[in-house]
Amino acid sequence: MSDPIDEFSFLAAQAADAGIDGPLPRGERVSIPLSDGRMLSALRYAPSTGSGTATPVVTFLHGAGLNAHTWDTTILAMGLPALAIDLAGHGDSSWREDAAYVARVLAPDVIAGIEAWTDGPQVLVGQSLGGLTAAAVAATRPDLVRELVVVDITPGIDFSGGPSQLRQFFAGPTDWASRDELVDRALAFGLGGERSAAERGVFHNSRVRDDGRVEWKHHFARLANAAASAPESAAHETDAVTAVLGEAGWEDLAAVTSPITLIRGDRGYVSAHDITVYRERVPAASVVEVPSGHNVQEEIPVHLAALVREIAGKA
């Protein structure tokens, strides 16, 4: 595969594939240094028409192993100024040396990004790990969140789990000779859809090192590879940590003062039992079921965009 001119070169084709008419928004890569020396990176989109710079009204947080570009088509269809943040250890944001990729640890980075790149409370949308992180942000900084939208995740679900096929995919080699090898591997595992979509996803989620080898941008691939050879005791430790983090997620949701909407994919990770527990513990929240798997923003981005746009209009 040949590299595009820049990371926004795919937008026209994505809009055409999704049947989205109208001018494309202006996209820019932004970054800020964090207090511990790491960098936080994000994508900021503004309408291409009109004067001045339209600041974001919706901020998006992706799931584990993904990056800010997973929201591109949703943002194109939504038609509102938006910010999509690369969580720590993903995309162009720095990896964490402690590998602590959990909601309450990630939330301060998101808060710093919202403060730097927006000028008002946001409709904060998070999918999977991003959804748990969004809840932590809304709980600790209610002044930054007009409305919270959580996509296909509830506390207690192992966000790093997912299908065993996906775990095997990321637990493979940590570097590759070319991006074409990664595309072929994704297609062999039944991931990425059509080859053009797989090429787009691989481009956004990988980088070429100085030695010419290609590696995943996200830290999770390195961690998955290490976990594949970890002793059984490490797996038990992870299970114990997951249980504690699950309760922290419920505490965050209970502390949120803004309206909450849970969007559940009918083929996603949130089971009927999970929904029953969720309704009991977060009774004021709205629940919307959509025809999708876990990655709603990639399977039905236009549908999701309409839901978010409606929420943003009411918020």
From TrEMBL:
Transmembrane segments: none annotated. InterPro entries: AB_hydrolase_1 (IPR000073), AB_hydrolase_fold (IPR029058), AB_hydrolase_sf (IPR050266). GO terms for molecular function: hydrolase activity. Residues 60-299 form the AB hydrolase-1 domain. It comes from the Bacteria. Signal peptide: none annotated. Keywords: Hydrolase. The keyword Lyase does not apply. This is Alpha/beta fold hydrolase.
